[in-house]
Amino acid sequence: MSEAMDIKPDAQVKSARAETILYVDGVSVTFDGFRALNNLSFYVEPGELRAIIGPNGAGKTTMMDIITGKTRPDTGDVLFKSETDLTKLDEADIANLGIGRKFQKPTVFESHTVFDNLLLACSGGRGVFKALFHRLSSAEKIKIEKTLITIMLDEKRDELAANLSHGQKQWLEIGMLLMQEPELLLVDEPVAGMTDSETEETAKLLRTIAKEYSVVVVEHDMEFVRDLDCKVTVLHEGSVLAEGRLDHVQKDPRVIEVYLGR
Ligand SMILES: Nc1ncnc2c1ncn2[C@@H]1O[C@H](COP(=O)(O)OP(=O)(O)OP(=O)(O)O)[C@@H](O)[C@H]1O
């Protein structure tokens, strides 16, 4: 990007902020002298599905850590819904604001059924015993039923989570996050280790979820990213290298050189 394009007049910055669910601007973070994020700026609109790609070490995980309050930036702004400064909040506050994060490995309650996993997720910290034995409100029931269908596990509702395939466990964990009705969902490499058909179904699932919530997905699997059919941000050395539709960024010689051409 040219220097001229880098200059953001105040009015332009303001209008970008006004329309964003996530506003990351000029974020840098250094670990022991190594700059993991370097003046990183990108914006996500409400209801948007966004894929983040980039080579190993590009800063994708660090970026998620900054958004969720696990890591503090040295400089830069991170705003949720244009006004809440996430750099001042801790991880629990940020989760309570409505930002859900799905880590790469599924962490479901293996010895409970699919249905009970969703029930536990909407229990609001009641504890396992109380959560499983309290009377479900009709709103909770509807929410669980709707989520079971969304995550394609309606027919597995009485199955122990331990008996699910790896892909189904990932979907269940996404469902558990949906029970909290997050406005922004961050998903880290969801299809690693999935079968081809599970990968395809996961793209459909995330596209469905993005009709209701904003979703940011970090992934290396290009077929999957193509299926997401969304805007793609390419990170490299802690900055945005390119942004646009996958077809567009795949043709960018810089992207081919540092990532896709390998
Ligand atoms: N806590 C830390 N201390 C020191 N260096 C770190 C720390 N966290 C990340 N890094 C370094 O910052 C850089 C960016 O790492 P990050 O994990 O964000 O990249 P990534 O794009 O998620 O890579 P991958 O695709 O391999 O997961 C890497 O060089 C990594 O070694």
UniProtKB/TrEMBL annotation:
Per UniProt, residues of the ABC transporter domain are 22-262
Q: Which Pfam families match?
A: ABC_tran, BCA_ABC_TP_C
Q: What is this protein called?
A: Urea ABC transporter ATP-binding protein UrtD
Spell out the CDD domains in the cross-references.
ABC_Mj1267_LivG_branched
Source organism: Thalassospira lohafexi
Which taxonomic lineage does the organism of this UniProt entry have? Bacteria, Pseudomonadati, Pseudomonadota, Alphaproteobacteria, Rhodospirillales
User: GO molecular function terms here?
Assistant: ATP binding; ATP hydrolysis activity
Gene Ontology CC:
plasma membrane
What's in the keyword line of the UniProt record?
Answer: ATP-binding, Nucleotide-binding, Transport
Gene name of the encoded protein: urtD
Which InterPro entries does the protein's record reference? ABC_AA/LPS_Transport, ABC_transporter-like_ATP-bd, ABC_transptr_urea_ATP-bd_UrtD, BCA_ABC_TP_C, P-loop_NTPase
